[in-house]
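Notes from hallway chat w/ T.B., transcribed later so I don't forget. T.B. wanted the structure written out for a chain they're using in a teaching module, and asked if we could keep both sequence and structure tokens in one place. Agreed to drop them here.
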Amino acid sequence: MGIGEDIKQSRFRHEWQKGMINLLYTYNWVSYSLRGYLEEYDLSHQQFNVLRILNGSHPTPLSTQEIRNRMLDKASDASRIVDRLIAKELLIKKGCDKDKRLVDVNITDKGKDLVNILIDKEDAMIMKMMGNLSEADVHKLNELLDKIRAGKSE
């Protein structure tokens, strides 16, 4: 089904409007699917993103500012997300030795174990959602999405 059928709209002002609506609709569909995937682990997609960031930087800790800079959702409150993950014993934080105004955040062994489980399941979820695309299709999709962001206004 195409976007017109999915949202029961037969006319669009132009292809750019249709493309924007399609992009937003697809983003929401992916977000909803990701929520269901993470629900059993009591994680939001922002929390999973922070865990992946810190797993990738391990053993080097990151400040909450550096975490925020690397997050997919720049509007997220990285400090609050970190605090929730600390409460779940998935992260630890301590004062930064180099700059007393900052705190260093690192992933715990429990957090690394969870990320590894989720990454294995994520691959299956990705293939379930995108398996009907060829590698060439996905490459072109990535190029097009990069091209959209290249014209971004800030």
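Follow-up for T.B.: The first strand starts at residue 91 and ends at 95. Might be a good example for the class.
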